[in-house]
Every structure is written in structure tokens, then in C-alpha cells.
Specification:
The complex is a heterodimer. By secondary structure, chain A is of the alpha/beta class. Helix content of chain A is about 40%, strand content about 10%. In chain A, a hairpin with a 2-residue loop joins β5 and β6. Chain B is an alpha/beta fold. Chains A and B meet through α5 and α6 of A and α3 and α4 of B.
Chain lengths: ~350, ~350
């Protein structure tokens, strides 16, 4: 392997103390923001669904941390999912944007037009997804095709769960990305559930990496509760894509410890199974490791958790005090250049001449 | 860079072009003008496209700008959206528009909602051949406009002649909204439509219908290949009945040019809508409703329509001719309205 290669393909990258603590903070912030959001939901402040990434924080944080994160539109890019809150924050999204989105504030990234983490910032590298998540493979294939055509050394990471892998869009996205050698890495969030449907009812493969073989893609599985392991695996996958080796896949093996959304009481899940996975909580695991390996003291880590809680709390309070959009804003931004008609029954004097 | 392909040089030499050549010229000129414009589709590069619209483009522009894709309409249409996010202006060819259905999800849920969702403009053109009369059978003959008409955020263009096809396609490529661009394959090489086009760079604005024949007795609102059958009927009515029909070519179906329709209806008081697409859920229903809302008092007769029958497109000549609206159908409906 040439010396200019940024990382060895087989060895874990060096991760400094600061980097470890940054990852820990991102995980703590994701959890704190979601927990605060859950309270807002119970209080009736959130209109749509609230989706938790409990147990999956290490997957999105470790993955995003492996990327070139920039703020000028020249870095790597991700298409997040609702369970990639940590990655959203690492890529430049803020808790304030997060709460404004969920609370449908006019100050939010989509001014109340779209929900949850469905927002975009091409400068920092966020591509808001649409709910049919398989589609995002097609879109990320095109984003990374543009990188390739323009000779930019950029990589695109697209997240999607077990369920998305059954859709036609998922497969056509991979067909396209593979055939065009797009610098795209698919992150399969293998959390063992697609809403209430378990993986075994979605597919007969033991690992989603088996599906990658069908497209000639390089793929690796990794323990999605271990942020350092995820970081190492995605660093390798991104390096491959950046080096022109085409698209790849990383499977995050972990478990969705809460229902699909807050409305889902998870009655179809064996409680013992959840308890087993609680023992592998990524945040607690990582805290223990940082402490036991001597990267930080318990007080330092607890201080960071508290700081994350305060940051989430402050953002939530700010967003709560802000207004929602005017109803008539629903007419805006359908086209860049064409107005759409207002319902004539909403006009001051109903006049069929202007229906 | 290889020499300019011969089939896109006719206008600069002052020669007439076919409908198909007008489309090739539009693509070639926009790709030459703007590096961000590139093409994706099945068999468009080495083979030059099923109808040869992009013949020799690969040699001229190279494989980064003329991309042969797998048979994955959803894949490459979604990829076009991603490339557009990154500032490019993709034009994708659907080999036959009958095959666009796998991309329905990404077009309606993704491309058409992008601006509204805050994901930014979506300068993507999805173009391809449509329409019957060529004995293509159920899967090489469909019109797809009404499958997409109910999609806010999308524009749908359906030209009837080389001048409009070129100007509308160039305007569509420069538009920041997703555009579905339908090309009737029966017009592609029609000798009767060959025309000398202006040598300069011109655009035909999207969203504007055009009166292609003036008259005061009856308005026919139509588009695509039916513009020509409507003109045939109008000539017959003028000669045999002394009855002058106004023909309004919609050119863009979405957004629909209400003003032009209403203006013509107010002038003639009678409206016949003619479309090659099937009857139920055809655009005639929407046009009728808009006239009902905006010009009911000006009507002297019920609004009628002439359309294809509600069936898949059949293969046999006798069946397809029965399926498609014919000039004689337009004459019958127009004479009924004239006497009403």
C-alpha cells in the first residue's frame, strides 16, 4: 500500500482524546435532545411522530465522525434518518434546529413544511430524507455521481434501516451506484425491526452484507453499539470510496430499544430481549471505556452529560417560545416561479369569477 | 472534442428540421451552452438512443456528460435529483414513457416536493417518447401526463411542433422546477411538420398556451398530436360548413394556462376538448371544471370532449385506430356543438 494512503485499510485509525470526547458528547447530546423531545411530545407540543435512536447513538456518531466535516459545501455529505440524530449534530445541525423542526416553528429549517430530521444543509453536508427511505439511495447515488464527474474527493453516506432494504428503490439505488462506481457508502441501520416487522420476516439473509455481494459491493458488518469500532469501519469504507473504488456498505448491528415511534408501545417485543440490549447501551459502554482506559475521569464525563442536557434544554426552551407559520404560507414554494391558486372560498368576498 | 454531429447542424445551415431534430438541437445547444447540463438514460450513448435523439452526442461530449445507465428508471431519475442538489442540471431520457412508472415514487415524492420541503430547486428534465398510432401495442404507446398531473411542484410539457419542441425543451432545461417533457413519437419524423427554425437562441415559455388557428365559432383546446387532427377538422369545417374553429394548443399541461382557455371560451362560447390520452381522468375534466368556475356564463353549449377510449392501447391497426380519437370524431363533436 502506498505511503500516501490516508489510512490503512485494515487497521483502526488513531483516535485522539479530544476526538473520543467529542464523540461522547455527540452521543450524549443526541440522547438528551431526544429525551427532552419525548417530554415535549407527552405535553402535546409535537404534532407528528417522535422517533428515538435509543441504543443506536454510537452508529450514527461513529459514522459521521469518520467523515470530512466542513461548513463551506466542500466536505462529505450524509442523508440521515430519524435514528441518526447524533450524526445530524456532528454534521453541523443544531439542537435548536432539531426542536424547531419537531415543533414546526417558522424559524425552523423548513419553516414547518417538513417534520423531524427531514432538513437540508448542503453547506455542512446534510441531505434531509423523505419517508420512503429507499429513495435516498437513488438520490445519494446521484449526489456522489456529481462528486465523481467533477473530480471532487468527497464521499456520501446514506443511512437506511432493515425495512428500506426491501424496497425497489433501495435496489435501483445500489444498481446505479455500483454501475457508475459512485463514492457512496450505504449505512444499513440493522436494528432488527421495520416498524413491527422483525428482520427474519423481511429477508432470509443472515446479514445485509450478503445483499451487497449481489451488486459487487464491498461490505462490512460492525457492532453498532461500539462507537470506536463504527468509526474505524466507516473510516475504511470512506477511504475506499474516496480512492475511487466505488460504492460500499457498512452494516450496523444493534437494536431498536423503543417502538418505531412514540405511538408504538412495542407490545410485539419480548421484554427480556430489550433488557439484554440495555446491557449494551452504547453511551454507558463508552463512558465506562473512556473512564477505564483513562481518557477522562468520571466527573469529567458526568459534566459533559450535564452540559449536553443543558444545551438540549436551552434549545427546547428557545424553540418553544417561537411562533409557527401562518397557514397561508402553505401556498408558498410549490414552484420557484409560479403562484398557485388560493381557495376562492377563503377570499374576503367569494367571487366565482376568481375561483 | 469530436465534430458537431450532422443532424444538429440543420438550423445553422438554414435547412428545415423534423420534430426529432429540433429536440436534438435543443439538447445539443443547451449542453454546449452550460457545462452543468448532462444526459442520463438507457442506450443513449453508444447507441444514440432508441430514436437516435442523441446520436453521436457521446463522441462529442464524452462519457461524463452522456451516461448510459442500467435499466433502472427509478435509480437514474433519483440520481438526477441528487446531481441537481449538487448544482448540476440533468436531463434524463425515458426510453419509452410507458416505462416511467417505476420512477413514479421518486418523481412525485421526491423531485416534485423538493423545493417545498426546503431541499432546494430541482432543475431536472425527464423526457421521452409518448403516444400511439405507431402500432406499438400496450407498452410503447401510452400517454403518461395524467398519471403525473396531480403532482404539485411538477411541470408537464407536451409540444406539437418543432419550433415549440425546441424552445420549450430549452426553457425546460433552464427551469429550476422538475419538468416532465413528453414527445409524441408520431411527430418525430413527420415530413409535414418539418420547419425552418430561427437560427438564434430562442425559448418558448412554459405555462403559456398558444392559439394556432383563430376562429369565432368554437374553441378546441388540445395538445400534442391532436393539434394536427384538430386543424384538419377545422379546415374541413371552414370549407364545408363555413364555421371557423379556434384551436388552442396548450403546450404546457401543468401549470395549466387558465387565462388562455378562458379568453378563447369567452370569445367563442363553445368548447371542445380533444386529447389522445384516455377518457376517464383525462385533462378534459379539469379544463371543464376551470371553465365552469371562471366562464360559465359565457357558454352557449355544454363542454364536450373527444378522447381515446378507456382501454389499454391495443396493437392491431383496426383496434388502435378505433381506440384513438380520429378527425371524424372531432368533426362530429364540433358539428353537434355548432348546432346546439
Amino acid at each position: 500500500m502506498p505511503e500516501s494512503e490516508p489510512q490503512s485499510r485494515n487497521e483502526a485509525p488513531e483516535v485522539s482524546r479530544d476526538q473520543r470526547l467529542d464523540m461522547f458528547y455527540a452521543m450524549a447530546l443526541a440522547r438528551a435532545a431526544e429525551e427532552r423531545l419525548e417530554i415535549l411530545f407527552r405535553q402535546g407540543h409535537v404534532g407528528g411522530g417522535v422517533y428515538r435512536s435509543l441504543g443506536q447513538e454510537a452508529g450514527s456518531v461513529g459514522a459521521a465522525f469518520a467523515l470530512r466535516r466542513r461548513t463551506d459545501g466542500t466536505g462529505d455529505i450524509i442523508a440521515q434518518t430519524v435514528r441518526a440524530t447524533g450524526a445530524v449534530f456532528l454534521m453541523g445541525g443544531t439542537p435548536l434546529q432539531f426542536f424547531r423542526q419537531y415543533l414546526a416553528r417558522v424559524t425552523g429549517p423548513t419553516q414547518g413544511k417538513e417534520a423531524n430530521v427531514h432538513w437540508v444543509d448542503y453547506q455542512t453536508g446534510l441531505v434531509g430524507p423523505v419517508s420512503p427511505l429507499g429513495t435516498m439511495l437513488e438520490v445519494m447515488a446521484g449526489i456522489t455521481l456529481a462528486f465523481k464527474l467533477r473530480g471532487e474527493e468527497r464521499v456520501g453516506l446514506v443511512f437506511g434501516g432493515d425495512g428500506a432494504s426491501s424496497t425497489g428503490a433501495w435496489h435501483e439505488g445500489l444498481v446505479f451506484a455500483a454501475s457508475q462506481a459512485c463514492p457512496m457508502v450505504l449505512m444499513v441501520e440493522a436494528n432488527q425491526w421495520a416498524f413491527s416487522t422483525p428482520t427474519r420476516k423481511n429477508t432470509r439473509v443472515k446479514s445485509f452484507t450478503e445483499k451487497a455481494a449481489g451488486y459487487g459491493l464491498h461490505a462490512e458488518s460492525v457492532d453498532g453499539t461500539d462507537v470506536i469500532a463504527v468509526h474505524g469501519t466507516v473510516t475504511r469504507a470512506a477511504a475506499r470510496a474516496r480512492a475511487g473504488e466505488g460504492a460500499g456498505m457498512v452494516e450496523l448491528q444493534y437494536y431498536r430499544r423503543m417502538g418505531h415511534a412514540q405511538h408504538d408501545a412495542q407490545e410485539y417485543v419480548d421484554a427480556a430481549e430489550i433488557s439484554e440490549w440495555e446491557k449494551r447501551d452504547p453511551l454507558i459502554q463508552f463512558r465506562h471505556r473512556l473512564w477505564s482506559e483513562g481518557w477522562a475521569t468520571g466527573d469529567q464525563l458526568d459534566g459533559m452529560v450535564e452540559e449536553a442536557f443543558d444545551e438540549a434544554q436551552t434549545a427546547a426552551e428557545t424553540a418553544l417560545g417561537e411562533p409557527g407559520p401562518e397557514g397561508s404560507a402553505a401556498l408558498e414554494q410549490v414552484y420557484t416561479d409560479t403562484d398557485i391558486a388560493s381557495p376562492w372560498t377563503r377570499m374576503r368576498v367569494p367571487n366565482p369569477q376568481h375561483a | 472534442m469530436a465534430n458537431k454531429p450532422e443532424h444538429v447542424t440543420k438550423t445553422e445551415q438554414g435547412d428545415p428540421v423534423t420534430f426529432l431534430e429540433a429536440i436534438s438541437e435543443a439538447l445539443f445547444e443547451e449542453m454546449s451552452r452550460d457545462d452543468r447540463v448532462f444526459l442520463m438514460g438507457e442506450d443513449i450513448g453508444v447507441y444514440g438512443g432508441a430514436f437516435k435523439v442523441t446520436r453521436d452526442f457521446l463522441e462529442h461530449f464524452g462519457e461524463n456528460r452522456v451516461i448510459d445507465t442500467p435499466i433502472a428508471e427509478a435509480g437514474f431519475t433519483g440520481a438526477a435529483a441528487g446531481a441537481a442538489h449538487m448544482g448540476m442540471r440533468p436531463v434524463v431520457e425515458v426510453q419509452f414513457m410507458d416505462f416511467i412508472s417505476p420512477a413514479y415514487d421518486v418523481i412525485t415524492n421526491y423531485l416534485a416536493t423538493s423545493l417545498y420541503r426546503g431541499s432546494g430547486p430541482m432543475p431536472v428534465v425527464i423526457r421521452g417518447p409518448v403516444g400511439g398510432g405507431n402500432r406499438g401495442g400496450p407498452f410503447h404507446s401510452q400517454n403518461v401526463e395524467m398519471a403525473f398531473f396531480h403532482t404539485p411542484g411538477l411541470k408537464i410539457v407536451y409540444p406539437s411542433n418543432p419550433y415549440d419542441a425546441k424552445g420549450l425543451l430549452k426553457a425546460a432545461i433552464r427551469d429550476d422546477n422538475p419538468v416532465l417533457f413528453e414527445e409524441h413519437k408520431g411527430l418525430y419524423r413527420s415530413p409535414a411538420l418539418r420547419a425552418v427554425l430561427p437560427p438564434e437562441d430562442y425559448l418558448v415559455p412554459l405555462g403559456k398556451a398558444k392559439v394556432t388557428r383563430a376562429g369565432d365559432g368554437l374553441t378546441i383546446v388540445t395538445y400534442g398530436a391532436m393539434v394536427h387532427k384538430s386543424h384538419e377538422a377545422a379546415e374541413t369545417l371552414s370549407e364545408q360548413d363555413g364555421f371557423e374553429v379556434e384551436v388552442l394548443d396548450l403546450r404546457t399541461l401543468l401549470p395549466l394556462d387558465d387565462d388562455a382557455i378562458v379568453e378563447s371560451v369567452k370569445k367563442t362560447g363553445r368548447l371542445l376538448i380533444v386529447h389522445e390520452d384516455t377518457r376517464t381522468g383525462g385533462i378534459a375534466g379539469e379544463i371543464c371544471m376551470r371553465v365552469n368556475e371562471k366562464a360559465f356564463e359565457w357558454l352557449d353549449a355544454p363542454i364536450l370532449r373527444v378522447t381515446a377510449i378507456d382501454a389499454p392501447v391495443p396493437y392491431a391497426a383496426t383496434l388502435e385506430d378505433f381506440f384513438l380519437p380520429q378527425t371524424s370524431d372531432i368533426l362530429t363533436a364540433a358539428r353537434y356543438l355548432a348546432k346546439y
